[in-house]
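Lab notebook, design round three. We kept the backbone fixed and only want residue identities now. Task for the bench partner: fill in a sequence for the structure below.
Input structure tokens:
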């Protein structure tokens, strides 16, 4: 597993992205897609009215609030180690959402997911995102378009342009993982079928999450999550310090978790003055 993770990290370093093939079974893909279709009806989801989200694209945000079947996604045993390698062990869930590109959708403007971060480029990774293929992703049905190597650029693409790109074609059950600075965008769907995926996006522990997991998820629900998922939602503390509540982690203060020492408590006491 460690060797596979290293190979994926090398591809991300060089090209800005990698694809984990056969990452989850087709049966799980079908179950997730059916659950998403039910949620779209229950929540009366409709496409957006802006060009970025798409006029023929259905999105459901805050997926962890919508059923136990989505809990395993942020914890995927092959993808999470890649995200931790791009970011670090204290990374967070930035957003977990669905993206279903319908027939007739136009290509999404090419962009970088960290475009709003006010840092000189290229910079240390602040975002590592992934796309789970719940259907086959083809060039015809809107497979994500990628500009290989663009994560090393010293600027972001001009909004509304479509630089030369390649489609991330995937079979159902594959997962695309990319560096947040990589230029990319959803493709145009020229078929009669929907291209359905789940966007599982991570950010560094010192970066504000795209979706506010702490306020968007009821505490009684978070209390049922495994500890690692609670940490990914932001109920831990970054490097033993950032995000504490009166010297306690949010998990301890709000969920009754066991105490965790702060970084100050781990520093050896100074010796006697010379």
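Proposed sequence:
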């Amino acid at each position: 597993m460690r060797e596979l993770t290293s190979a994926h990290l090398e591809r991300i370093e060089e090209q800005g992205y990698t694809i984990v093939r056969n990452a989850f079974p087709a049966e799980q893909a079908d179950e997730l897609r059916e659950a998403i279709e039910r949620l779209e009806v229950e929540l009366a989801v409709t496409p957006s009215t802006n060009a970025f989200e798409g006029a023929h694209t259905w999105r459901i945000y805050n997926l962890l609030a919508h059923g136990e079947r989505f809990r395993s996604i942020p914890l995927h045993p092959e993808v999470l180690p890649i995200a931790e390698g791009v970011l670090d062990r204290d990374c967070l869930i930035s957003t977990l959402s669905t993206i279903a590109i319908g027939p007739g959708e136009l290509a999404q403007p090419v962009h970088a997911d960290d475009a709003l971060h006010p840092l000189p480029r290229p910079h240390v990774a602040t975002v590592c995102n992934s796309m789970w293929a719940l259907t086959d992703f083809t060039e015809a049905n809107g497979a994500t378009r990628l500009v290989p190597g663009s994560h090393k650029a010293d600027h972001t693409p001009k909004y509304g342009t479509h630089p030369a790109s390649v489609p991330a074609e995937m079979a159902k059950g594959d997962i695309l993982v990319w560096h947040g600075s990589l230029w990319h965008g959803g493709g145009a769907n020229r078929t009669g079928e929907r291209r359905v995926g789940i966007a599982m996006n991570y950010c560094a522990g010192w970066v504000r999450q795209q979706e506010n997991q702490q306020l968007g998820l009821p505490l009684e629900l978070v209390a049922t999550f495994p500890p690692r998922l609670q940490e990914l939602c932001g109920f831990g503390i970054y490097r033993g310090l950032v995000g504490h509540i009166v010297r306690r982690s949010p998990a301890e203060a709000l969920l009754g978790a066991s105490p965790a020492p702060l970084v100050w408590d781990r520093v050896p006491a100074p010796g006697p003055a010379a």
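Keep this in mind before ordering anything: The mean pLDDT is 96.
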